[in-house]
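Allow me, if you will, to draw on your knowledge of protein folds for a short while. The matter concerns a single protein, recorded as an amino acid sequence and a row of backbone structure tokens. Kindly check, if you would, that the fold set down in the tokens agrees with what the sequence suggests. You will find the record immediately after this paragraph.
***
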Amino acid sequence: MSEFSELLSLLIKTKDINVSALTNYCNLDRSSMYKLINGKRNPASREQVRKISEFINLNPMESQEMIEAYDIARVGWETYYRRKNVSEFILNFQEIQAKSSAGLSSAVLEHLSDLTIPDQGSQALNGRLQVTSSIYQILLRASSEANGSIYIISQPEHLEGLEIAASLLRNHSDTDIFHIICINNGRSYIRSQQDYNLQCLTKLIPFFGTQCNYHSYYYYDNVNSHFNNLNFMPCVFLTPTAAVICSSDMKDGILFRSENLISLLIHRFQIMLKETSPLILSFRSTLEFHLKTFRSVMPGSREAYGLAAQPCLIPFISNSLLKKYASEELHNRPELIETLQKYISTFSDFLLHNFFSRSGILQFLKTGRMHEIPDKLYRPFEYPDRINILKLCLKALKDGKNIRLFQPPLDRFPENLHIFSSGDFGYILFSSHDNTLHYLLLKEQNLLNAFCDFSSALEESELLCSADETAAFLQKLIE
């Protein structure tokens, strides 16, 4: 039996539902209804599920549970929960970011001062307090030095538990962090409501709000085979002057200060690094990546999805608008305009599904700013030009372009977030607390597939308004 049929059978039994009456109400024949009850067929649509819920007189929470059971039966629990995790990643994105700026608690600061690190030799670390305090001290010391380097082998949940992103933010350094993690590859046969790889990405986002140069690398394997209590101290935290290795629960560890031993550990780390792949490539400059690299990597994709609070309006910027609004203070203004022209022309080479929220388009009308372009490159569009850009967007919609408004709950899409995905290319663009734009180029295929699958399923998941509803909204704004 499927998730849906099990729930339906339970409701029919507990609420003493007349199956014949239910069959007639849903305009089904007796055979079709019993196939639904016995799990031999899934409902034809969400609307059919709603009719069943309506007849059984379910409350809103119970009706939503029926819809979820239908979705799980239709796409499978793994796909269903992966899509749900992507939705949670989007809607909770600003809270995820905030973890990097929360700062250290007074209790943690007190712990930091409790332990004195020896200048040489080694020291056994007993208990979580000693282990975490030692890790904090060696990382903070490395991040306070010019051109500091940090090397880490541990899973993202360890770093989140240590509040390392928050501690590094305090130093405002340009430290290089090289971090190796294990990524699950292949289907899980243990049912879980959490996609582990997506949870890894969630826990790493705060590091891109710090001043550190954070580099994440991955290898495929079973995470539990490397990080559990049966493995001997699998977590490693290295700096040029100190090292801590510890158990996965961080209750036992060893602190090393021997120069020869640390050199050996760093050498071994660099050998391991060659056997890994970048999980994410991060760029802080739109000129470094987005305008120059985008054109060269996109032609391989015929179809792509853009999700943001603000619609992607760049395709509607003419050459005359570029020349009018490009900042006069740019020393390479002619070259920048030419680069922007090539970037805009790229959008005509593929089908872009352009999804956005009402608040995002209103923000553009209010400010004349486009989130995808750093403020320093251009001055805000004047109001008449904002309206003209919306007219071009509406015309493209009426000409058949897939430009759509979000339905709840995605209508709460964060204003500082933009997600672009296709079958072989994708990135996450967001602004940090200091308005710096960050581009995270997704390199791991499972992560890319998760965002692309979520985006392509928005319509069947009833998370998009119709084309007519979107056109009516844009027309009302223009008028």
Remarks:
- The mean pLDDT is 86.
- The first strand starts at residue 122 and ends at 126.
